[in-house]
Amino acid sequence: MELTLALSIGVLTGSGVWLLLRPRTFQVIMGLSLISYAVNLFIFSMGRLGLATGKEPVLRAGVPQELAHYADPMPQALVLTAIVIGFAMTALFLVVLLASRGLSGTDHVDGIEPPEGMEPDDDGARP
Amino acid sequence: MTGLADAAPMQHLMLAPVLLPLLVAALMLLLGEERHRLKMALNVGSCAVLLGVSCLLLLRAANEGAPQAVGVYLPGNWQAPFGIVLALDRLSALMLVLTSLVGLAAALFACARWHRVGVHFHVLFQLQLMGLAGAFLTADLFNLFVFFEVTLAASYGLLLHGSGRARVLSGMHYIAINLAASALFLIGVSMLYGITGTLSMADLSQHIPTLRDSDRGLLHAAAGILATAFLIKAAIWPLNFWLVPAYSAATAPVAALFALMTKLGVYSILRLWTLLFGGEAGASAQFGSLWLIGAGMLTMGFGAIGMMGSQRLGHLSGYAALLSSGTVLAAAGFGQNLLTAAMLYYLPASTLAISALFLLGDVLDRWRSPLEGADPYEPKSEAAPFLNARLEPTRGFNLDEEEQALVGRPIPAATAFVGLAFLMCTLMLSGLPPLPGFVGKFAMLNALFNPLGLAASAGAQLGLTGWTFLAVLITSGFFALSALVRAGIAYFWTAQGRGPLRVGLAEGVPIAALLLACVLLSVAAGPALRYTQATADALHAPSGYVQAILGAEPVPSVAAGSTSDEAAEGTP
Predict the structure, then answer these.
(1) Where are the domains of chain B?
(2) Is A49 on the interface with B (CB under 8 A)?
(3) What is the pLDDT of residues B291-301, one digit of tens each?
(4) What is the model's pTM?
């Protein structure tokens, strides 16, 4: 389980950072989303007593009321807050992205198309 | 918290800086979009009340007698480290007063014309103030994150206020880097929780000295990641390329308020660094000190050179904000209480001056190019105002057209006011006497040479970092002076076909108020420096803060008299 989680966080973060550094606004927003997924998973893995696998998420009758028998509630609260805020911010960023596309006529992050041949690794996708 | 019943009104006053803007913002959302005047009055009125409340809180923090005066409020009535804790110490009170003062000036200035160029200006403005106040008051990392996000969300809206290509583009970069910074913030916070099992700042500071050695590397990594998030907000080099385009594209009152936002990053660094890695932190004491000093000085250099290269007043003010931020961070990095005290005196002074310069820049830009000012949505041209032929004396042109003596002719009052205000900003930002820019820098240099106080530090050596800081501090002041003098010449002395300068009451009063606050800070430099000294002493000996928070008792439930079961349920 730890290995799967670590790998998925790593892959998500790596892809997110790569996309964040790309020149098109859509790639940037995808990158930011991937990074926020990775961060959410990471927060879960930071609970006390290690990664909670197969533990109760909420209090339940018959289970002793100790942290050893439950998943740590603190990361859950943090993740919930992070998801809500991240969702709202992504929606806002999407609006700004569309406004920028409308005002500048291009989806380049700088608002202007680079001169031909200046962007060797661009995949050629033009608006 | 011990005497909650007898000091109840003052105790609850702590909540006002968070609750009042929130309620006013909610109320304004319910009002229709048409009711500009009412919203304007609500916004300015709320800012004025906030200023009064913060001044009361400042007086209370200053007068509480004990060296570490801390007011603690438990909104959820759970004993720390559980639940939400708000704490008011001298540093928070100082930042609250600064916030509400700049907020009031910016709100008033916006009433002149800027508040009409978009929707929901006043609502976002109040929410921004709420986020700032909450971040200055909170005593745990979870709420610090929430209030940071409130501040950021409102700032996105405010930056885009007025729309236009420049604002949308710089806003997009601003949002992207802040979303990335929020991710770093979360990673750092959750790592700290994973290592220590708490998010309360006071509790964290108790856990750090007793940490296992195997966890110390992880702790430093977590602190570094968290600090990076704050340093992005504080606009440290090389994470500050977003600042100048964003701040100069924003409308003037928003930019003036944003001058505070960099100080929010500085505040968080100062608060957490002194709590977590102060002298009592055992093996982790002073972790990252050299990084702060070095990066701060690089930021100062970047800001100073940027000021020299700026052609527009908006850019000039933006780089001045970088210079101030870098100075404050580098000074904080030394971790000496005398230097921190001087820095805490310099911080509000420079923030006030930068805000005033942003507001002045708006008035001056409109004067220079009235056509541009008529349409607030989009600047007509990107051309730099200094690089045109207007700097050349026109052939046959005489400043004095009627060939009369220039001496003795009255200067129009508005021009004289704006000129004097610009002069004061120049003095403040370059650190020339008699304004607090000079007093603050002088106190910093004094603290560098005498780290233990005037009498006790004979034979103290400055060291390489100290000498470098001294050199950078003085050189950057000289750079700022040259850049501002050149801008002043270009704006005030060059001949150009332009009408008389008009400054409305709503524009003149905020600028005058900000500069008057600077003058007051200079006149009352003695008490102000004593206050910041007490602040710095408390920061560098955080046990008082920690004890006050962890020792705060929840209010007993009203039902406590009946049965204990009910009381236990009623407490939360």
Answers:
(1) 9-374+409-551
(2) no
(3) 999 999 999 99
(4) 0.87
